[in-house]
Amino acid sequence: MDDQSHQNSATENEMEHIEIIIGRILQIGVIIAAIVMLFGLILLLINGGNGGYPVGHQPTTISSILSGTVALKPYAVMMVGMFCLIMTPVLRVVVSIYAFYKEHDTLYVWITSIVLVILCISFVIGHTV
Amino acid sequence: MIQTMLIMMAVGLFAGIAGAILGLGGGIIITPVLTLMMGLDIKYAIGASIIAVIATSSGSTIAYLRDEVLNLRVAMFLEIATTIGGISGALLTGVLNPKYLYLLFGALLVFSGWNMWRKLRRGQEVMTNVKPDRIATKLKLNGSYFDKSEFKRVDYQVEDVPQGFLVMLGAGLASGMLGIGSGAFKVTAMDTFMKMPLKPSSATSNLMMGVTAAASATVYFFNGSILPNIAVPLALGILVGAVIGSRVMQVLPARVIRMIFIPVILFIGLQMLYKGIIGG
């Protein structure tokens, strides 16, 4: 029993470290996404609601989003912000792998890596189907 | 224009608070508001919902990680099931008749609502004296969290891992094919089948649903279904709401969360059964 409770507390300590690392990185990611989205929204307001593109259109390719962002077109900046937001869960998985690795939890390095691989496969399938 | 923006922010704020507390994606709030009230095409409403799920997930997970409410190992382990289910769902679209999925998963949610109501009446949040589950011990899934409404640390054990895994596989399949239930099934799998307490179930569901949604979100992002003028103010409102909600949830008694959860889950379940009966 003593042995088991000892093991439990070790696991808990490890978890605390991992969760704090992931939480910090996630927080940074979310803040960046929020700032970029807010900046785009302010640009949209300054432009009187004109997104910088014909009505009902928005940039959807990486190159058009990037060139629009350089030109400070509101919709392009907003798309960049949303893309950052979409990437935050992926970031969470990647950082988890690193955090489990740091804590020598091999089993969960594997489990989390499998999740990342499946996630990558679904990205590819999503863009071909 | 400014009016639309403010409405979206307000809707987002509300959806973010509710979503973070219940562990749901907020699609049940956002989709009807966008389609019925704002007259937006369903395609754009789904695009905005996907962004909403991710914003709720990431916004609330910051606090749930810091305060250690969620169970990261359970999340990662079950994430294998939801992502595989999600891929299968995307590939099976057009092969499998969604009618049966609506019926099956609608029934599952209604069952789960009934089961939650029994749990509420029994008045016991954490199952004690459960014998340690072999798989859960091996996978180090058992956890604990500090309940800020009872001012005590709650240790809990996880049961029936294979069953939970199976429900999650179905949950991924259903949300991949039907585009709904991003959170409802996840909470159900953990609370009803794996016997986890409601608070870690909801917090863990919040973490998981962002990962599941991220894959489909890029598809919607590049095919133009996500309108920036709608989705951006919505997402900003949700982020603020989710940060508030993830704090409120921790001080709410689990009983209260369950009382809000039951009618919501019954509503989603009955809506799905209805869709299945009239032919999806």
UniProtKB/TrEMBL annotation, chain A:
Keywords: Membrane, Transmembrane, Transmembrane helix. The chain crosses the membrane at residues 21-46, 75-95, 107-126. The keyword Transmembrane helix applies. The keyword Transmembrane helix applies. This is Membrane protein. It comes from Secundilactobacillus silagincola.
TrEMBL record, chain B:
InterPro entries: TM_pro_TauE-like, TSUP. It is a multi-pass membrane protein. GO terms for cellular component: plasma membrane. Keywords: Cell membrane, Membrane, Transmembrane, Transmembrane helix, Transport. It is found in: Cell membrane. It comes from the Bacteria. PANTHER family: MEMBRANE TRANSPORTER PROTEIN YDHB-RELATED, TRANSMEMBRANE PROTEIN YFCA. Belongs to the 4-toluene sulfonate uptake permease (TSUP) (TC 2.A.102) family. This is Probable membrane transporter protein. It comes from Secundilactobacillus silagincola.
